[in-house]
Amino acid sequence: MTRGLATRTGTAPIEQRLMLWLYPRLRALPPGERPLVLEKARDTEFTTGEWVGIAGGLCFVAWLLDADFTAWAAHSRLLALLLQFLLALPLLALVVGPFFLNRTRRGIERELARGTRRAWDASPPMNREDL
């Protein structure tokens, strides 16, 4: 018995809620199609503006975390680098994460539009009698 920790798509309910919160357009899809659409959406290319934002965000976080290692001379340089790494993770998520969210949201919109077109193309032609 799994006690509701995972659904048949293999993702936990908390992860599903988070994905629906981050990508509200996924609500338009049946739950079984969401992982595939999300995977395809993540394959979307970044725009030039997003690349510039990611590069700028990386430079900004690197500048913020520029440490003076003379202060750490009594301790370990390795400890200072580990601390920088641990501080960089949440900062990068805050500064660069929105560019990844934007790219995935664009990809979801593209996939939804393709799905609509596919459904339209797959539908049988209408006869005048059907109107």
What can be said about the biggest beta sheet?
Answer: none
Question: Would you tell me the overall average pLDDT?
Answer: 80
Give the structural class.
mainly alpha
Characterize the overall form. elongated
Provide the low-confidence segments as ranges.
1-8, 119-126
Number of helices: 5
Distance between the amino and carboxyl termini = 52 Å
Radius of gyration, whole Å: 22 Å
- SSE string, helix = H, strand = E? HHHHH
Strand content: under 5%
Count the domains: 1
- DSSP, total strands: 0
Q: Would you write up a description of this structure?
A:
- The chain has one domain (13-121).
- It is elongated, with a radius of gyration of 22 Å.
- Helix 2 packs across helix 5 (97-122).
- By secondary structure, it is mostly helical.
- The protein is 61% helix and 0% strand.
Concise synopsis of the structure shown:
With 131 residues, the protein is mainly alpha-helical.
Which secondary structure elements does this structure contain, and how are they paired or packed?
Elements: H1 13-22, H2 34-41, H3 48-64, H4 77-95, H5 97-122
Key terms:
single chain, 131 residues, mainly alpha, elongated
